[in-house]
Design a protein that fits this description.
336 residues; Rossmann fold; 7-stranded mixed beta sheet; two-stranded antiparallel sheet; 10 helices; 11 strands
């Protein structure tokens, strides 16, 4: 019997083919003695549009809102239909002992694989297994991870999270976009994330527009000591700013009169603290640091990280919010 491996993109399928000896190139797949390896092109299927459920919904009317399908359905994406059809035909023509999901180790990777398999008519979960690693896909990693496949049901929660993310995006986007567009007679694109981000940007702009600058004064004092000089800041109740010129002048005059007086150290506090090492980068952390140090945009940072992971094999999977390594990666770390 032979297994089918489904990856998220051609380059990953090529990595698997090299590692597992699937050297024969077919139409949309690689073939070896034990494996057929095929690939998606990102998402191969998408949720129905409203008018796919009911032609009368093609025209935007407030009276038809909200649109809530009894059951959400998927359809192949026209742009990538050719590859979807190849996968569907492979599943129909061959009796695979196992179908192995090897899409990216994350929520979207899970959604891409599950929706593709289910829409292609492959529903037998007992024969679906999950390849899961965040390491670069060098041959040893591929071979070792293939020995530790998990039942796909272990990742059902991840699948449900991705599915309901899609559904919530559809519900908010389709209904609210139609509502505001018809109501205000101009196209308003509404989204679960984009509209929330727009609100944050709008609030920030209002803060900047309404900001009234205030003049304040800070008093600095130079102290001379046996071991060198240092600068101190005047403060009261942890506040170092003086908002009135009279207060600043009064304090300045007082300090100036006593400038030759010796300073007195009122208290010294010593304590030992343990500082834990920082977590690893999440994608957002990496993008922020790259922007701060090199001025990179978020997209440029992601593109570079993806290339280091995918092509150079020297970075773990970058498209994640996780900041820790799994226990299966302990052998990668050289403890001292």
């Amino acid at each position: 019997m032979i297994d089918l491996i489904l990856t998220e993109k051609f380059s990953v399928a090529s990595d698997f083919a090299k590692a597992l000896g699937a050297n024969k190139k077919g139409n949309g797949f690689f073939k070896g003695d034990k494996y057929i390896i095929t690939w998606a092109v990102g998402h191969l299927v998408e949720l129905y549009a409203p008018d796919d459920y009911d032609r009368n919904l093609k025209k935007w009317k407030i009276e038809t809102l909200p649109i809530i399908p009894e059951q959400f359905k998927y359809k192949p994406i026209k742009r990538t239909y050719r590859q979807f059809k190849i996968i569907k035909n492979l599943l129909r023509q061959k009796q695979f002992s196992r179908v192995i999901i090897a899409t990216d180790a994350g929520r979207e990777g899970e959604v891409i694989a599950r929706t593709t398999l289910f829409e292609a008519g492959f529903l037998d979960k007992t024969r679906i297994f999950r390849f899961w690693t965040s390491q670069a896909l060098v041959p040893d990693v591929v071979k070792n991870t293939m020995k530790n496949l998990k039942p796909v049901t272990d990742y059902d929660r991840l699948w449900r999270a991705g599915y309901y993310r899609q559904v919530s995006d559809w519900m908010i986007g389709m209904n609210c976009t139609r509502l505001l567009t018809v109501r205000f007679k101009d196209l308003f694109s509404v989204g679960r994330v984009q509209t929330a981000v727009l609100a944050l940007l709008t609030d920030r702009k209002k803060e900047r527009d309404n900001f009234i600058p205030k003049t304040y004064w800070i008093i600095k004092v130079l102290f001379a000591g046996d071991k060198g000089n240092w600068t101190g800041h005047w403060f009261k109740n942890k506040n170092t700013k003086l908002l009135k010129k009279e207060d600043e002048q009064e304090l300045y005059n007082k300090l100036n009169q006593e400038k030759t007086s010796p300073g007195v150290v009122q208290s010294v506090k010593k304590e030992q603290k343990k500082e834990l090492p920082p977590y690893l980068f999440s994608l957002t952390d990496l993008q922020q640091e790259a922007n701060k140090k090199f001025g990179f945009s978020a997209k440029k940072s992601l593109d570079i990280a993806q290339k280091l992971y995918q092509d150079k094999k020297c970075l773990s999977y970058p498209r994640t919010d996780s900041r820790v390594l799994g226990t299966q990666n302990l052998d990668m770390i050289n403890f001292k």
